[in-house]
Amino acid sequence: LVIHPDKSVTSPSQEVIILGFVINSITMTIRVTNAKKERIKTFLIAAIENPIDISIRQVAKIIGYLVSTLPGVQYGALYYRYLEMDKVSALKISKGNFDAPMTISKDGLVELRWWVNHIDESFNYLMIPPIDITIYSDASLQGWGAVLGDTSSGGRWSPDECTNHINYLELLAAFFALKSFCTTIQGKHVKLMIDNTTAVAVINNMGSCHSRACHSVGCQIWQFCVEYNIWLTAAHIPGAKNVLADKKSRHFQSQTLKQCREENNSGACPGNFSCPRLAHPALVSTVGPASCSTSSGSGTQSHTADPLSLSENNSSPLQKAETFSMSCLRQQLLRGYSLRSIEIIESSWRDSTKSQYQVHLQKWLQFCMERDCDFISPNLPQALDFLSSLFDSALSYSSLNS
């Protein structure tokens, strides 16, 4: 064993300087030395003043300095990824020439300014408190789900969100899970159980250089945690064990569908989608189903109204469903066609034709209400999604073509 006197502390001390960091055993914190802070700020200010014609080597040097301070800057890892992405892009263009010039992006400049403004007050804790709460989250291509003890939350993706990669959706699901249980987890150490290793890595590493979209969500997650004094740890759970969160991400209590059906009971067709749409209904309080109460001498009896109960009491279920679908189709046609045109269209539908297409018309109506798409004029991706769902339900090509 070789002892290095210059690197050793021979007398007891509660604060020691080692490798450019100040370690304090009273506050149990670590921070960057003042000399190192000033040296780094000099490089940062020079880069901010000349972001257009700076060499790739100089940017790489700045990134190296920033990364070297991360043990003493608690949230520093959030604020160098865009610089790294700028450097990688510039190296691809220059074919690996570090002496070639490059331009720092606006996002990169924001990161540089953050360091200039925060490095003086930044520090990090030597010990992290134990985990207080565990949340399970999951995402599917349809929606997201989260479970905290006996409480659960979830919602459907908006049309724009559902087009993203599953890695992005898993991170977004984790973000919504934290928002859903915000009042419960404030000021605590939260452990997120996620069945996606990419999402786990992005959260634990405070960002990623591989995907701007994933890094953006990762930054939003941590900024939310900073605002509510939450420390976050992510861990992987096999998908087969993440059952409850997975179920919430695939089964929804559609607020839009319920409200549209309530409008239909009052005379409006759910196909017009005049009701407001909640992209993430589980983030707000859920209203119970509409009920009808009748009083009698023996007490009060309640029952939930059937959304298909639009005809007389003696109508058969098939007649009720047919009336519901055909009336909605007529209301939709009224949006863009003249009354005479609609009469001609309806007269061409024989009873046998209505019966033949009744089942699929019901499925299409249900699909439109769940996806909030136009009953008569959907866009192409929505129509293809509907046909794909029919094909997955074991319908043949000939059935789909008809």
TrEMBL record:
Name under which the protein is recorded: Transposon Tf2-6 poly
InterPro entries attached to this UniProt entry: Hepadnavirus_pol/RT (IPR052055), Integrase_recombinase_N (IPR010998), RNaseH-like_sf (IPR012337)
Naturally occurring in which organism (per UniProt): Paramuricea clavata
SUPFAM superfamilies reported for this sequence: Ribonuclease H-like
